[in-house]
Records
---
Amino acid sequence: GQNIDQPTEMTATEGAIVQINCTYQTSGFNGLFWYQQHAGEAPTFLSYNVLDGLEEKGRFSSFLSRSKGYSYLLLKELQMKDSASYLCAVVDSNYQLIWGAGTKLIIKP
Amino acid sequence: GAVVSQHPSWVICKSGTSVKIECRSLDFQATTMFWYRQFPKQSLMLMATSNEGSKATYEQGVEKDKFLINHASLTLSTLTVTSAHPEDSSFYICSARDLGGGRDTGELFFGEGSRLTVL
């Protein structure tokens, strides 16, 4: 079966750095998305990785290792507004999106 | 980036009535749109893939006759929840990819979401 694993909840301190991991087992691979979702709102696109390596975009970076079936989202200089759920999603060989359950990130002052 | 607009944002209806949710791509043409449902504290679940000019493709377990999808133009897809019941109360979200002009980055653009409450 297809599976996406990410931690259910993480807590970090304002101004710090946090890394949210995502591991996947899917039938084929055509890219991996990270989305941010605040409670009651639609997801917001953060990043898309299809090749191995690190993609940096401001305070957020995303890393992919296809051989390991592994990705992480790195958030730097955390702000209170970063408190949200972070969703990892993989595009499989049929171009279907397989979603993780999301990681709820709690930022403390 | 491309803009997807969803309407209404909130809807409350009585059990047994039907509700229509619209999803529009405002500045690009979307031959394919996706409809998701999200129950509280759960992940997004793909319900169906909406294809312009043809029948939608439904995911396993999603009732075609209950969740009617119409994608009559390149900028509009509608989801109608027929004979809604309280268990249909959920957050419904649409998304689309901008495939035009070689701009496809794989990014999905989401609508704002529609929260349905069935009394």
---
Amino acid sequence: QVQLQESGPGLVKPSETLSLTCSVSDGSIDTYYWTWIRQPPGKGLEWIGYISYTGSTNYNPSVKSRVTISVDTSKNQFSLRLSSVTAADTAVYYCARVVRGKEYNAPTSGFYYYYYMDVWGKGTTVTVSS
Amino acid sequence: DIQMTQSPSSLSASVGDRVTITCRASQSISTYLNWYQQKPGNAPKLLIYFSSSLQSGVPSRFSGSGSGTDFTLTISSLQPDDFATYYCQQNYISPWTFGRGTTVEVK
């Protein structure tokens, strides 16, 4: 059973860059999509972005100017970098595996893709504070 | 962004109760809707994907339905392990967005 584990500093200073890594064990990283999601203290979930096995990315506009998600297939890891952090970036950060399914839409004679996060890391708390 | 509105925000129920949670999207999302369960201090767990498909290993007392803008998660007979917070999430249009959650508490 594939497992994900986040790692990285638990404390980051304001204006600096948050860097986290997600290690994928007991599974290959090059056949799925991979995503980061965060949860501020006492609040709900916010999707940050994903990277595909081809390396293409899709980011939430709320962080798009500050975020980079990358993958290192040789290490079976993917990473998150979030620059110019503020206290609002304080959260539990989760990495997760994304499954992409395909549905045929008869009215349009086309295929549509749906996505869901089926395996999650345990999460890592990142606090932004001086 | 597509707004996902869950109701109620919390509910109290007893073991054995039938529980229904509603999720409404601000625009049509077809059936591109997932449900997750989260317990305090833990990561979310996938329950239902594509509106009504039960994730492998999830008990059959959980079911999902709906299309367009209105969706429902139903727990047919609430068990002690089901007291948690439930989130819906749309993946029809980027950015993917979550509802604010529904907490199921012990009555």
